[in-house]
Write a structure and sequence with these properties.
Layout (H helix, E strand, L loop, with lengths): L2 H32 L18 H7 L2 H12 L2 E6 L2 E6 L2 H9 L5 E2 L8 H4 L9 H14 L2 H20 L4 E5 H18 L1 H6 L1 H13 L3 H5 L6 H27 L6 H7 L10 H32 L1 H18 L5 H5 L2 H13 L6 E5 L3 E4 L5 E4 L4 E4 L1 H4 L23 H4 L18 H18 E5 L5 E3 L6 E3 L3 E6 L6
Parallel strand pairs: 2-8
Antiparallel strand pairs: 1-2, 3-5, 4-12, 5-8, 6-7, 9-12, 10-11
Helix pairs in contact: 7-8, 7-20, 8-14, 10-12, 12-14, 13-14, 14-17, 14-20, 15-17
The chain binds protoporphyrin IX containing FE (HEM) and 2-acetamido-2-deoxy-beta-D-glucopyranose.
Length: 492
């Protein structure tokens, strides 16, 4: 190889190199001209150490992290979490897309996948959105007003029976009591009388195993071979067998009961296919997971606040007196509907303590949000997006004295949850995936508290409860000791 040749080939490389640079520059210029928005205005990022830093920040408690970052970064910011970008959208001004977007833009399937081993195959987050949507329709139909009316009758019987076992006076852990009453009621209304009357102990033990198999670690590694997951899987199989027998015997006998089990047995997909036994079981488990802890936690907080706020205690008692004078002691759906003061007391307990503290979606398309200060951010597809009922329900520009228990903030005239527009109150989520069990939950909690208010005088003897942030469904830490005395509601 002589000197001339090698100089020539060097020149060729130089030319190719120049051409490449020129092309890149031209491409950049063109793209900047025709796509001026290709420069993304990304949300600010939470400062954290690389790789595990975000996880550490998150594990300290997601709400602690939000409390620290919101004042610094505003209502939209991104956290890097185990090599995923999680973008938080806090407050009604920036969360409309979160709640309203179609499944093709923001989906639940990926982020709620960890429920699959618990709910079982073929239901909810294990199936395509088209099937899931139909299964949510089964829920909607099973929780219609005419059905709810029948469930209320079960709720009333269960509450009367349960509290008839309390003495003339005594001391109880209210949290434990309400948890148990709600399991009994859920068994009756959701799982059916076969379970409630004959299989209650077996089935509650199995549900306990399912429950204990859903740990914070299960969110990231749902199939990790640990004893809790093994027990979960065994329990899921045994529940399957139990329900298969019940369903078969109902179908054979041709009986029609008033419960969710029956509704799911009778549900049909659009193509005419009936639900399978395994789908019915899975949907029932999903219903219990959605409704059980959430409702029992909310009843406990409602009680704790009423027992510490004599002003609101006396207004709910007045309301009960008025209703008893009008309807007597009987409680049914329409009577519960008149308990507006009690409703606001529950709603306010739930504002301060929503049991689902973090809602998630997986984003499949770019979108833009505008904050109330006017800043615009582009959130790239591929991010996980999150919002937090526990944090957003206490925003001071929406709720006056947000840390104070003040049920009247929802009274006509103040309507603080409506004044700032939709998605200001998100204890039940909202929009496309808003809770389907909200009316059921209120009916249940009102049934319990109207019974307690009418029949007992109560006093909180332990300190006001703290929040148990470590639970998957965030509730009350420790016992809630209450001293009670049986008494008839003194009518005026
Ligand atoms: C105080 C009690 C309850 C609270 C605080 C609550 C809260 C919520 C929240 C925040 C969501 C939205 C989740 C998301 O957007 O990712 C939700 C969805 C849901 N809830 Fe509830 N819930 C309660 C009781 C119930 C009950 C009793 C049932 C059934 C009997 C139920 C059934 C459902 C269902 C089926 C969904 C899914 C709706 C969908 O994705 O389209 N919930 N709930
Ligand atoms: C997270 O976002 C940053 C900045 O936009 C980006 O560089 C990074 O690739 C993203 N990480 C993942 C895992 O998507």
């Amino acid at each position: 190889m002589d000197a001339v040749e090698s100089a020539g080939s060097g020149g060729k490389f130089l030319n190719v190199g120049l051409l490449l640079v020129a092309t890149i520059v031209a491409a950049k210029l063109i793209s900047a001209l025709i796509m001026p928005r290709s420069k993304k205005r990304l949300p600010p990022r939470v400062a954290a150490w690389p790789v595990l830093g975000g996880l550490v920040r998150f594990m300290k408690g997601p709400v602690v992290m939000l409390k620290e970052e919101y004042p610094k970064l505003g209502s939209v910011f991104t956290l890097n979490f185990l090599n995923k970008n999680i973008t938080f959208l806090i407050g009604p001004e920036v969360s409309a897309h979160f709640f309203k977007a179609p499944e093709s833009d923001l989906s639940q399937q990926e982020v709620y996948q960890f429920n699959v081993p618990t709910f079982g195959p073929g239901v909810v987050f294990d199936v395509d959105y088209t099937v899931r949507q139909e299964q949510f329709r089964f829920f909607t139909e099973a929780l219609r007003v005419n059905k709810l009316k029948a469930y209320v009758d079960h709720m009333v019987v269960e509450a009367e029976e349960y509290f008839s076992k309390w003495g003339e006076s005594g001391e109880v852990d209210l949290k434990y009591e309400l948890e148990h009453l709600i399991i009994l009621t859920a068994s009756r209304c959701l799982l059916g009388e076969e379970v409630r009357n004959k299989l209650f102990d077996d089935v509650s033990a199995l549900f306990h195993d399912l429950d204990s198999g859903m740990l914070p670690i299960s969110v990231i590694f749902p199939y990790l071979p640990i004893p809790a997951h093994r027990r979960r899987d065994q329990a899921r199989k045994k529940l399957s067998d139990i329900f298969a027998k019940i369903i078969a015997s109902r179908k054979e006998a041709g009986t029609k009961a008033n419960d969710l089990l029956q509704c799911f047995i009778d549900s049909k997909y659009k193509d005419g296919r009936p639900t399978s036994e395994s789908e019915v079981t899975g949907l029932l488990i999903a219903a219990l997971f959605a409704g059980q802890h959430t409702s029992s936690i909310t009843s406990t907080w409602t009680g704790a606040y009423l027992l510490c706020n004599p002003k609101y205690m006396s207004t709910v008692l007045e309301e009960q007196k008025t209703i008893v004078q009008k309807h007597g002691n009987e409680v049914h759906y329409d009577v519960l509907a008149e308990m507006e003061v009690l409703y606001r007391c529950i709603k306010e307990a739930l504002r301060l303590h929503p049991p689902l503290i973090m809602l998630l979606r997986s984003s499949h398309s770019d979108f833009t949000v505008k904050t109330k200060e006017g800043a615009e951010y582009d959130i790239p597809k591929g991010h996980i997006v999150a919002t937090s009922p526990a944090f957003a329900n206490r925003l001071p520009h929406i709720y006056k004295d947000p840390e104070t228990y003040d049920p009247d903030r929802f009274a006509p005239g103040r309507d603080e949850d409506k004044a700032a527009g939709a998605f200001s109150y998100i204890a039940f989520g909202g929009g496309r995936h808003g809770c389907l069990g909200e009316p059921f939950a209120y009916l249940q909690i009102k049934t319990i508290w109207s019974h307690l208010l009418r029949n007992f005088e109560m006093e909180l003897v332990s300190p006001f409860p703290e929040i148990d942030w470590n639970a998957m469904v965030v509730g009350v830490k420790g016992k809630v000791m209450v001293r009670y005395k049986r008494r008839a509601l003194p009518l005026n």
